[in-house]
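Table S5 (text form). Sequence records supplied for joint modeling of the two-component complex.
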Amino acid sequence: MKKILVIATFLIATVSFAQNKNAKASFEVDGVCMMCKDRIEKACIKTKGVKSANWNVQTHELRLIYNEGKTSLDDVKKNILAVGHDLKDMKATDEAYNSVHPCCKYREEEVKDDHKE
Amino acid sequence: MKKLLYILFVLPVVMVSQENVSGKILEIDNQGNEIPLPGANVYWLNTSIGDVTDFEGNFSITYETEYKDLVVSFVGYKTDTISVNDSNKPIKHFLKATSELDEVEIVSRKKATSKSYLQAQNVMNVSSEELLKAACCNLSESFETNPSIDVNFADAVSGTKQIKMLGLTSPYILIATENIPSVRGASQAYGLTFTPGTWVESIQITKGAGSVVNGYESIAGQINAELQKPTKDDKLFVNLYGASNERLELNTHFNAKLSDKWSTGLYLHGNMHQKEHDVNHDNFLDMPLYHQINVMNRWQYTDTENGFVGFFNFRYLTDEKQTGELDFNPNTDKLTTNAWGSEIDTQRFDFSGKLGYVNPELPWRSVGVQFAVSNHQQDSYFGLREYNIEHNSIYSNVMYNSIISDSRHKIKTGVSFTYDHYDELVELNTFERIDNSIGAFFEYNFDNLDKLNLTAGIRVDNHNKLGFFVTPRLHARYTPWEKSAFRASFGRGKRSANIFAENQSLFATSRAINVIGSNGGEIYGLDPEIAWNYGVSFLQGFNLFERKADVSVDFYRTDFQNQVVADWENPQEISFYNLEDDSYANSFQTEINYNMFKRFDVRLAYKYYDVKTKYLTGKKPRPLTPKHRFFANAGYETYRKENGAQWKFDATYNWLGEQRFSSTITNPVQYQLPEKTPTVGTLNAQITKVFSSKFEVYLGGENITNVRQDNPIMGAEDPFGANFDTTYVYGPIFGSMYYAGLRFRIK
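The corresponding structure-token record, covering 864 residues in total, follows.
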């Protein structure tokens, strides 16, 4: 799989149509609860070209499978930011962040504590 | 490494101008707790700069802007790479054990019976927790705490309980074991008593037509029992049960992991009841003498790396019942008029296998193969009437799951094949037939991840007796506002009625059997049954005084296009004929679940049935079906201590309104029954004391208020006379019954 990806990335430079239909990616998205999970996954799935999205409440890891020919990771990340969830390297705008349900305000310590078992 | 240790020492003293990234590496254990991981390697990708986490799982590592990717690795865990762009934010990262499945269980006090707010179908999931509320000995008794299913005695002699759903008896419900139809054909009458309660892991009850994946036979609903899995069940489990009527049961499970891929489980069940009871002094046993030995061996194959999982089961059962008059001796009185007696001996052998493949790269793509063969043999006689049936069956189903464009659009498609060979002896007549079918199904599920979820399924089957036919089914769920679910469904079902196997209680009467085949139908001269089922339901969760509650209302209608009517309206005979006019079953149910205070749950339900059929003598409500039913259940648990110790209390009250007796107007006066039965209320309760997660004892009572039907057997004084009939049963025959038992497990 990795090899294929490596080879694919090499080829992309030269050949423009060797794109992975089932590319995989995983990165961290900030959130606290099942409602966040819902919101994050919806934002991903509604991006044309994303086939499946699974966000883990405990590890904050988002796993994506998407068609590189139809979308890029940047597009997906944009959509996640747009619904108000921070990534490791990008923060959602305050406006977007404020749109999440009050109990999902994952940036606040108090909310984080509430969701600890 | 040394450098780092040095830095760690120096850090508290000297303000380091150098930027550091620090963080914590943890794992989530099986209980959902965060556990620090000491000794994990943390290093910058393609560099030699690294650190090892300390006992608290903490690490600290120098940071340069060109370092982006931090690798975290530890033997036995999946290596992860974290991209770091901000050195000020402490890192908190969880490693996953390589052996772990991609499942996260959220541990909280789960409700024993849960209704889904999301699924398109009206499904209730009954967990093993609920099954423990009544020390149910087998599947037919495990619905006592569920208001959607009615449990009552089939007759006054066999002691068999039959279940009803939406006002229709079990032949109209598709009863499956791990999604393989299991209680059907010859096992229709007693099949539910052939699955011991402890073997059951959970039960899914679907109201309405259900999915097309498991076949075309379901009309009122589907019940699926998932059995214990060798990898999840206890290493050793023992359940011992004894009741005041001298019924004894023993269940033992042994599970072992043989290799990293193979596990096996051996499940043994034995029950016996050899004490004669006659509390109503009618000279007949109130419950049969019986013993059953039931053995299952399961093999589970799991290869998570390549995405394979398989189950292979072997089951053998032998069940012997004897009932009738107190002084009946089978050795001398069998099939004579010395005394009226009956024996029902069943032997059954099952093999079933399931193999599933989930593409490890693409989690939505999976293939499943199911295969089952069974041989069922019942030899029985009731007084002078003999009934034997042998049923050989093969069932197989191949299914492919995938998505269209993204995981909001799921599809299931596949083909199935069934073969049934029936060999029956009914008094002096023999009936033999072979049913076989081949079919294909396609089910599309759309879930917009928000308000709407719908499942549209269609299957086409070609059956040697039922012909070529199409089975459409549709389910939809819409959520107009928070914590609500509005559902609607409709679907079609078709089946061949095994009139004798499904109505075995007719043999314990003096009724003549009258099959009125009108136009040369394929099954006993009758045409198959076809019904449409429509339903709507609404579920709303809310908080009352800051405690969780939910209320649900549902209405279902089953419309028979064709039916094999079992007509009991003439007390001298039972007639079977195809429906001439109309027959329907309307069912309305409302239910409230309320968590009144901490660990105290209440469930109240009310059900209204309107089930009518056009008989030869006119349109009448179905006999022995109560118009009104009221149900109440309360359960309380004390706080669960560290070692799992707690007390559990549970009580269930069931009230059945008047039920119509089938007509006895043509009988002599002393054999005439009133038009309606009296009402019946029964109370069951159970107390469980859990000493630890290993050991618990329970004590309970059934029918505590000692409600009894006085004369369940008509003509008991003259069992070979013209008016002998054991089918006029509306309530308990045996009074209250107390039981106790223990459960011991080694996890």
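Note: The helical segments of chain B are 2-10, 128-131, 330-333, 499-502.
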